Amino acid sequence: MADECLFCRIVRGEIPATLVAENASCIAFRDLGPKAPTHVLVIPRKHVESLNTLDDPALVAEMTALAQQVAKAEGIDGPGYRLVINTNAHGGQTVFHLHLHVLGGRQMKWPPG
Ligand code: AMP
Ligand code: ZN
Question: 11-33 pLDDT, tens per residue?
């Protein structure tokens, strides 16, 4: 439920987060348990449970536009970075508010674990 959703609470400023960028529809903040030297989460301001329930695909374009801005500001655009959206159990989703991981600052492996 959006009232109790962790990321909705970050959007509302009820839980602290280190904001790095924002636009009209999304915010970007540092992941609390970073998995790379740069690990930023880009989330829509409105509650969307996962990619499965997204009814407004243009929102993902706004999320990737903000991720592009973050990558440049973090200096990882040149060396490269990875964008990830985990969905449900097999995807490894643990927070059920749509989010885009922006990971960079080290060599990524493929295939992912
Ligand atoms: P996922 O596993 O794809 O659902 O990603 C959820 C991410 O949220 C994980 O990488 C967590 O480290 C991160 N996370 C959980 N709580 C917080 C928080 N309060 N502030 C920032 N990041 C968080
Ligand atoms: Zn939410």
Answer: 999 999 999 999 999 999 999 99
pTM for the model? 0.98
Annotated catalytic, 99? yes
Calpha distance 19→27 (Å, rounded): 7
Residue 112, ligand 1, Cβ within 6 A: no
DSSP symbol at 107: P
Residue 17 Cα distances to 32, 42, 64, 86, 87, angstroms: 8, 12, 20, 20, 23
End-to-end Cα separation, the chain, in angstroms: 30
Joined together, the tokens standing for residue 93 give: 């989703």
Residue 40 backbone class (left: φ over 0; alpha: ψ -120 to 50; beta: rest)? beta
